[in-house]
DNA sequence: TTAATTCCTATCGTTTTAGTTGGTTTTCTG
DNA sequence: CAGAAAACCAACTAAAACGATAGGAATTAA
């Protein structure tokens, strides 16, 4: 039931971009260094995020990545859907293209999986990258020795 | 983010036992046949469930498995915790023995994972095997050609 | 021109998954 | 008592997923 590193690293990177939103393209290397992630591996994740339209890239020297939309317009669910696939603990209740099942109409198990999926979706979609930035700012203000743990 | 077959098969089997609750020990073979699961594989899952105290077994001919408690006293969360491990999408926010992380105090990611975990836990713990049986009965009553799809 | 940086494809070792195999032990029934 | 039914148990295995790594090609600012 665990998330893969795609989802974990990817959301970390997106949060990093959100914190640095409006400061031009952020090079992958700096994100990878801050987050302690293999640069090459993170590259693959950014590719996925770019193709999904969540980040924009600028090639060449002084290039890098930036969010394609404002942090307030990107939810945790948006990021996780792209990197982990449609939300759902079992294939027959995925948000998109659920795997067909001959018993679908009257399957009691299905009700359970749908309820869990809906609660996950609600939680994921309720948190934006902006919310995360706000929380970071709040904690920073509350504590002298707070550091950006992103 | 998917459940493994342990969780899926295991909950199916537990629901099967709940439907047949009070009818003495149910042989594994009959569960495996109804649910279309490898008998030997299901055996391993039942072993885990037995050691966790969710089912009781009776050995020898006419033996089998039965729920250790009433269906109303076993939640979906109980079953999934035993078969899939503590609930949580990432190791640092598992319900039990979360993986320590040096940044724990001020980690913004953590807030996200906790919120998702809590919503999953709430959904899982809110559904009992009895609820599932009730729903099956309800559907049965509503439709002539309803069949027990368990 | 050169250094920085994204883009792209392929490969690879390890771990997990989802079983299978081949038994042993217990207990009911005829 | 014999035989069948059933749980119990340990070891093995093929395939898939995971988490990278390798090696370059293309682009662009300075």
UniProtKB/TrEMBL annotation, chains A, B:
Work out whether the entry's keyword set contains DNA-binding.
yes
Looking at the record's lineage, which domain of life comes first? Bacteria
For this record, an example GO cellular component is: cytosol
> Signal peptide: which range, if any?
none
Q: Which UniProt keywords apply?
A: DNA-binding
Q: Which PROSITE patterns match?
A: HTH_RRF2_1, HTH_RRF2_2
Q: Which Pfam families would you find in this protein's record?
A: Rrf2
Does the keyword DNA-binding feature in the UniProt annotation? yes
Q: Which InterPro entries match?
A: TR_Rrf2-type_CS (IPR030489), Tscrpt_reg_Rrf2 (IPR000944), WH-like_DNA-bd_sf (IPR036388), WH_DNA-bd_sf (IPR036390)
Question: By its UniProt entry, which SUPFAM superfamilies does this protein fall under?
Answer: Winged helix' DNA-binding domain
User: What GO terms are given for molecular function?
Assistant: DNA binding; DNA-binding transcription factor activity
Record's protein name = BadM/Rrf2 family transcriptional regulator
UniProt source species = Thermosediminibacter litoriperuensis
Q: What is the lineage of its organism?
A: Bacteria, Bacillati, Bacillota, Clostridia, Thermosediminibacterales
